[in-house]
Design goal:
With 254 residues, this protein is of the alpha/beta class. It is 42% helix and 15% strand. α1 links the parallel β1 and β2. The site of NADP nicotinamide-adenine-dinucleotide phosphate has 27 residues, from α1 and α6. This is SDR family oxidoreductase.
Length: 254
């Protein structure tokens, strides 16, 4: 059973933790409720502070603004975090670039933007966690992917291919880290209710909106659906689960 003290004494680094990220905030709230001490990461300090203020016991958690595009600086930054806040029992990478990119608009700078944050940053986070003195015993990573990485999506070549690359990254890291009993898993959500889905529906006609909803057999998800899966995969309940891509999508890719 996952209890309210399941993560007591454990430090977990969460990227994409700003209060205006529906999923990031949901993950932070769920982990804090289970007793974790969180390191909240994003670029905007004020948005991270808002998240911290929404958590039970705010003083327990830290705000660490950092630009994850600075991929090569990630391992040394993580080593400093481990000294300041304790060794990491978990890393959750939820930060991401999202959006539409019809293929005739794609240029190198767009490609680099998507792939650096969605693939390069988690690769560097893994490298950072793997260094001496950073990971606590049985540490685990959860990478937030997308159903777009499992099923093609018109107009989303960049986003979808970056999330598909995350699947390959998850499986390869799981194999590379298994010897140290470190686990790496990925969650692939479909459309989650919140500001992102509101923006998406605002761009669509009523008919298109209905069609989008209809391809989710159990309707759209809620941030807590993703957060619950993160809690499970980081917990001891999943101690023999690694290299898995878990769709959290109400049947979207079924
Ligand atoms: N929303 C959905 O329906 C949905 C569906 C499937 C999958 N997902 C996945 O779920 C995750 C969360 O999605 P969301 O919609 O809740 O979040 P979001 O609104 O896209 O938030 C993105 C987060 O990443 C941070 N971020 C962006 N660039 C960064 C950088 N260079 N360095 C550090 N942090 C950076 C942002 O904070 P700053 O701007 O302050 O840096 C923010 O906290 C993403 O991985 C997304 O792909 C979402």
């Amino acid at each position: 059973m996952i209890t309210q003290t399941a993560f007591e004494g454990k430090t977990i680094l969460l990227t994409g933790a700003s209060s205006d990220s529906d999923i990031g905030l949901g993950i932070a709230q769920a982990l804090a409720q289970c007793g974790a001490r969180l390191i909240l990461v994003g670029r905007r300090r004020e948005e991270l502070e808002k998240t911290r203020d929404l958590l039970a016991n705010p003083a327990k958690h830290s705000v660490e603004p950092f630009d994850l595009y600075d991929m090569d600086a990630i391992p040394a930054w993580m080593a400093r975090l481990a000294v300041a806040h304790g060794k990491l029992s978990g890393v959750v990478h939820s930060a991401s670039v999202q959006g539409y990119s019809p293929v005739n608009t794609i240029k190198k700078q767009h490609f680099e933007g998507y792939f650096l944050l969605n693939v390069g940053a988690p690769m560097a986070l893994a490298r950072g966690l793997h260094q001496r003195g950073v990971a606590a015993e049985n540490a685990s990573m959860v990478l937030i992917g997308s159903s777009a990485g499992l099923r093609g999506m018109k107009g989303r070549a960049l986003y979808a291919s970056s999330k598909a690359a995350l699947v390959g990254l998850t499986k390869s890291l799981a194999l590379e880290f298994a010897k140290r009993r470190m686990r790496v898993n990925c969650i692939a959500p479909a459309l989650i209710r919140g500001s992102k889905s509101d923006q998406q529906f605002a761009m669509l006609s009523e008919e298109q909106g209905k069609a989008l909803e209809a391809i989710h057999p159990m309707g759209l998800g809620q941030p807590h659906n993703v957060a619950d899966a993160v809690v499970f995969l980081l917990s001891d309940m999943a101690s023999w689960v690694t290299g898995v891509v878990l769709p959290v999508d109400g049947g979207f890719v079924a």
